[in-house]
Amino acid sequence: MGNISYEFQVEKDDFERAGEASSKIKKILRQLGMDSGIIRRVAIGAYEAEINLVIHSLGGIISFSIEPKSITIIAKDSGPGIENVELAMKEGYSTAPERIREMGFGAGMGLPNMKKCSDSFSIESVVGKGTVITMKMMLKDGD
User: Fold this and answer.
1) What is the mean pLDDT of each run of 10 residues along the chain (143 residues)?
2) Domain 4-138 CATH class label
3) Which residue in 11, 37, 60, 83 could disulfide with 77, CB within 3.0 to 4.6 Å?
C-alpha cells in the first residue's frame, strides 16, 4: 500500500462539527482493515488534536497520512501559540475558559492523551504564530 493522506479543516469554536475529522479518520482506517488497537490510538490522538484546535486555536488543519510502517497525524494552527509547553503537557493543566469546561471540554488531558497514544510525539509552538503537533503511531511493534 502506498502513502495515503488527507487534510481536514478545523474551525475555531465549531463545536457542532468537533470530532468530524477524527470520525472520518477512524472510518478510513476501518475500511482499510487496520488493527482495532491502532485505530483506537489514532482516533483518540486525532480527536484530542481536533478538540484543541476548536477550543484554543484560531482554526487550523489536521493532516493524516498512512505510510507503510506508520500513521502520522499533524495538527497545525495559526495561533495564538502555547506560552508554556511544559506546563501545557501536565495532566489537568488547562487554559480553557469556564464556558468550555461547562460543555465538558478543557480538562487539561488533550496534550497528555495525544502523547500517550503516540509512539513519537512533538510539539512546536510560537506565541503569536501558532502550534504544530506531530504524532506518529507505528503499525507493527518493533519496526
Assistant:
1) 87 94 96 95 97 95 95 96 94 92 91 96 96 95 45
2) alpha beta
3) 60
Terminal-residue alpha carbon distance, the chain: 17
Which pLDDT belongs to residue 141?
Answer: 53
SS3 54: helix
| Interatomic CA distance for residues 96 and 81, integer angstroms | 14
- Cβ atoms < 10 Å from Cβ of 137: 20
Note whether 61 and 7 are within 8 A (CB). Answer: yes
All three cell numbers of 15, joined, read 463545536
- Burial degree of 59 (CB within 10 A; 0-12, 13-18, 19+): middle
The CA-atom distances, in angstroms, between 123 and each of 22, 34, 47, 50, 111 are 19, 26, 16, 15, 9
- Grid cell of 143 as nine digits: 519496526
